[in-house]
Every structure is written in structure tokens, then in C-alpha cells.
Amino acid sequence: MTDYRAPASDPPRPARRFVSPLDISVTTSSADTVVTVSGEIDLAVSDGLRQAMDDELRFTPAALIADLSAVTFCDSSGFTALVQIRAKAEKSDVPFILVTQERALLRPMSLLGLDAVFIVHPTLDSARDALTR
Questions:
Q1: Cα(102)–Cα(100) distance, rounded to whole angstroms?
Q2: What pTM did the predictor assign?
């Protein structure tokens, strides 16, 4: 019988961690609060995104806009976080708008039927224009 295991003298490999980089910035005004997100939204960062938006909802802004124009990937945990934020915003009577033209977000939203749930605008200016009407 042949033993294919590594010899005991080989040092163990260090554990590798995969962390998705995600940058979140917040800009507030009397007209709206914009949470600008860039990077990839996955399980490692979706709670941080949810918390950042929850924090802003506590101030009951006139509108909450999630600018996802620079997001290159979003998994199911990210979409779940966005759905939960939308529900909290709706309870607080705060309009919640997504801004993106990224196919990486629009295609899964369409496949999941979330394009019927979210208000999505291609640009921040068009989202703000919609709020003033």
C-alpha cells in the first residue's frame, strides 16, 4: 500500500483568509443621504454594509440613496442586506433608491425579480431628480 500523504516534516500551511475589499462613504444633506459603495459585496462584507445603512436610517434622512456605481460584484448576502435595508426604510417612510448601471448587479437583480422591488436609477443625478418630482 502506498501512502500519498505529505511527510510529517513538511510545515503546515498557514490559513488563508479571503476578505473582499469594500469602501463605504456617506454624504449627507438636507435633501438626502448618499451611501457610496465600491468594491465587491459578499458574505464577508454584507453585514458591514447593512450596519452602515442602518446607522444612517436612525437619523431618518429625507431619502437614502445607495450609490452602487462602483460595485463590481454582489452575492445573495449583499442582495439580502439591500432588501432588509429597503424594508426598514419603507417602515420609516424614507425613500430608498439604488444607483447603478453595472451589469454585474442589474442582471442578478432581474433574474431574482428584485428589479420589481428596488427603485434603480442609472446615475445619482437622475435619482435626485426623481426625488424632487
A1: 5
A2: 0.84
**Residue 126 grid cell:** 437622475
Q: Residue 113 contacts by C-beta under 8 Å, 6 or more apart in sequence?
A: none
| H or E segment to which residue 62 belongs | none
Return the closest-CA partner of residue 66 out of 97, 29, 27. 97
State whether the Cα torsion 58-30-83-20 is positive or negative. Answer: negative
Which is nearest to 85 in space by CA: 44, 112, 119?
A: 119
What tens digit of pLDDT does each residue of 30-71 get? 999 999 999 999 999 999 999 999 999 999 999 999 999 999
Q: How many CB atoms lie within 10 A of CB 66?
A: 29
